[in-house]
Amino acid sequence: MIQIEGLSFRYPGAKRDVIRELSLRIRQGSLFGLLGPNGSGKTTLISILTGLLPLLSGKIRIDGKALPGHLQEIQAGSALVPQEYAFYPRLSVMENLLFFGGVLAIPAHELRGRLTEALAVAGLESFESVRAEHLSGGLKRRLNLAIGLLNRPQLLFLDEPTVGIDPQSRHFILDAVKRINARGTTVVYTTHYMEEAEMLCDEIGVLDDGRLLACGTQEQLLNNTQSRELTVTLTAAPTAQQSGILSTIPGLEIISRELRMAHCTETDLKRLMKLLAAEGLDICRLKYGYRNLEELFLQMTGRQLRN
Amino acid sequence: MPLFALVTKEWKLLLRDWHALLLLFAMPAVFILVMSLALQNKFAEQQGVNIHYYLVNKDGSPASEALVKRLSAMKDLKILSSSASAPELIDKVRDDRAQFMVSIPSGFGKAMQSTDPLPVQMLAGPGVEPAMYMLFEAALREALVRVYLQHALAPLKTQMSAITSVGDAGLNLDATDKLLHAQSLYQVDGRNRRPSSVQQNVPAWLVFAMFFIAIPLSTTWVQERQQGTYARLRSMGLSAKDLLLGKLLPYLGINLLQVALMLVVGILVVPWFGGQRLTLGHAPLALTLMALALSFASVAYALLIANLVSTGEQATIFTGVANLLMAAVGGIMVPRFLMPPVMQALSRFSPMAWGLDGFLDVFLRPGGLAAVAPEALRLFGFGLACLALAGLRLAKQGGKA
Questions:
Q1: Which CATH class is domain A2-222?
Q2: Top-tier CATH class for A229-288
Q3: Is B160 inside any structural domain?
Q4: DSSP label at B385?
């Protein structure tokens, strides 16, 4: 549904591109997680896709329609839920929805149904008349989401929609996003919470320094044999002679009771198990593969702090 | 439809923001009231100019007594009574506890009839403004000339009546009073009257107050930008034009309400506080045109500022300083005729000067639509230029023009 080819972008006056030669495909109906550290280019990419920033170089097609020529059609079928509380605090929940409904020029005979639907998906039915400024953080996030649903988008951009809220509200929003996706809406979801991406997304793209480092399903990313890691903790440290025997496996590090291999194939693993059994060394704990998405993310993007 | 939603939203937001309402309506009303009353005391024709001075007469001659009598009769000049010595009085003037001291020297009357008259000494306090100094000096000089004519030339008058048959009638020294007929061309109900300070000052401060709409407008705009609301609205397909019109129309209405409120204050409230009543002139269409033109110019200018600044603090500081500069150059704070030629030439480029000229045409001169048309056109032109620049800036930031 979204096809991006050779996209680069540089802000006026900046010395380097914030998006560099990025190519990406997001299939229709996907719940796509866009992961990346601060400053990696996620928000810039979403801003270009929603027409907030101009397309300077590269090609973008959404549902077969090219940007920027078909921007109006693309905007009519998509919605952006920004990271900020992008509504009016002094207006009530219903007044906010009515205002944005008016901006979207939703026909009067459809408006009531759209409002009811958005309120129901966001669980805001009993807060209609409450001023937005008096809502809790979780309810504000839900109102932010509800506004994004008013035009029944086929493509929904969610920019860190669960920042700063309690676990209950977060799970409510995640469930709502799943339901929205289940009815056929393509969702592009940016987040810093890896467990959210693990729980929610069927496809993930990792962005850093304006480049797409990896893209695929979780299984594809996590089962990359080139980068499986092994950590074995023994009940007792091996003797010098046992260490010598174990060291015949290339890449194995022995640190007291712990054995580590940064890149361990299944063959390496089987051979190590045989040697440990032969030497009578008992295993206390064993970890193989990636521990989780966060580990993969940190390995890809590095651990250095970002601006 | 989107425009209707934008305008309705803006009104709802304003009606729920007491701080903004106070800034938009109460502040200009209080401002006009205070400025009218404060300046009335300085310039109004009824209360007169408040000049206080000490008068020391060291001469007991008929001429000095006549001078004292003439000075005492001047209602705008108030003689302060004091038993202090002359040096003590000088100290008081030096400390600005009185504005002037006039000292008539001993022998003043006698010397007046000689070729070497003794001067009356006029001393001014350090805080006396130049205009006030000139005013007092002129008043004193006029009184002295009258006394001189009556006393120094009295012997000549007697001699002339003796050698000619014309008599006293030919040398009536009081006839000088009839040599000037002063009249203002300002008319109320068909009669010539001197315009009140309210009439002269309300237009100036009205124009000044109207341009302050830039503060609430630009801070609201900055907030919406920072909250991500504008990004959301633009992602919904709203153009820069929609966004600008969505602010321009409601704030134009607010600005016109401000004008109406300030005029009501001039007409009704200022008289309650003892001030003079504002009269609106006889050209309602010209007044409406000027109000529209100035409102359009000030709101468009506010939209340009809103799109140039990044924070609310910047908006407030920029508007404050820029408005003060425009007011200073535009003759709001200092009358233009007092400015040097370069500044007078510069003032022709201040939108506040155009607004002031237009309103003065309506309030003081018999100006109709034709009289205010040039100023109104300039203001509409300025507003359109500001809107175009704001639109370009907004489009450059990512929205569609």
A1: alpha beta
A2: alpha beta
A3: no
A4: H
* Phi and psi torsions of A65, nearest 5°: -100, 135
Question: Chain A interface, mutation test: which of B16, B232, B234, most A Cβ atoms within 10 Å?
Answer: B232
From A91, A103, A151, residue closest to B238, measured CB to CB? A103
User: Which segments in chain B show pLDDT lower than 70?
Assistant: 1, 40-49, 157, 160-177, 179-180, 182-197, 200, 366, 398-401
Helices and strands counted in chain A (H then E): 11, 14
Going by their DSSP bridges, the two strands A2-9 and A19-26 should be labelled as: antiparallel
Count of domains in chain B? 2
Task: Name the domain boundary from B118, B134, B152.
Answer: B152
Nearest-angstrom CA–CA distance, A291 and B3 = 53
Q: Which structural domain range is residue B112 located in? A: 51-152
Q: Cβ A52–B236 below 8 Å, yes or no?
A: no
Angle between helices B284-308 and B197-210 (to 10 degrees): 30
pTM (global) more than 0.80: no
* Domain boundaries for CATH 3.30.70 within chain A: 229-288
pLDDT score recorded for residue B171: 59
User: Are A102 and B2 a contacting pair at CB < 8 A?
Assistant: yes
* Domain presence at residue B189: no
Cα–Cα distance measured from residue B101 to residue B79, given in angstroms and rounded to the nearest whole number: 9
Q: What would the two tokens of residue B118 be?
A: 């003794």
Across the interface, which of B226, B227, B231 has its CB nearest the CB of A52? B231
Residues of A in contact with B229 (CB under 8 A): 86-88
Q: Are residues B127 and B269 in the same domain?
A: no
How would you classify residue B274: left for phi > 0, otherwise alpha for psi between -120 and 50, otherwise beta?
A: left
The distance of A106 to chain B (nearest Cα, Å) reads: 9
Residue A264 half-sphere exposure, CB side, CA atoms within 13 Å?
Answer: 24
Chain A residues lying within 8 Å of B245, measured CB to CB: none
ipTM surpassing 0.90: no
**A238 pLDDT higher than 90:** yes
